[in-house]
Amino acid sequence: MKYIDLQEKSASELLELLKEKKVLLFSVKQKLKTMQLTNPNELREVRRDIARISTAISAQNK
After folding, report:
1. What tens digit of pLDDT does each residue of 25-49 get?
2. Crossing angle of the two packed helices 41-61 and 11-33, in degrees rounded to 10
3. With CB atoms 3.0 to 4.6 Å apart as the test, which of 20, 36, 38, 44 could cross-link to 31 if both were Cys?
4. Domains and their CATH numbers in the chain
5. CB atoms within 10 A of CB 20
């Protein structure tokens, strides 16, 4: 996911996307703890996506 793609979305779409990513982060963390995670880079990518979405939301608020 690129930041440019997020700039075009509305605030409500960004909030919905943020909720989805947080749920995904929770499930990835559970897989990590139960040794079911096959790609450990997935955790980092989800966290970075959450950071990008949060940045886009704060940029729209300013």
Report:
1. 999 999 999 999 999 899 999 999 9
2. 160
3. 36
4. 3-61 (1.10.287)
5. 12
Contacting residues for 42 by C-beta, under 8 A, at least 6 apart: 28
Q: Is the pTM of this model over 0.85?
A: yes
- Spatial distance between the Cα atoms of 32 and 61, rounded to a whole number of angstroms: 34
**CA 31 to mean position of chain CA atoms:** 17
* Residue entry with tokens 């075009």: 8
CA–CA separation, 35 and 10 (whole Å): 37
Tell me how far apart the alpha carbons of residues 59 and 55 are, in angstroms, rounded to a whole number.
Answer: 6
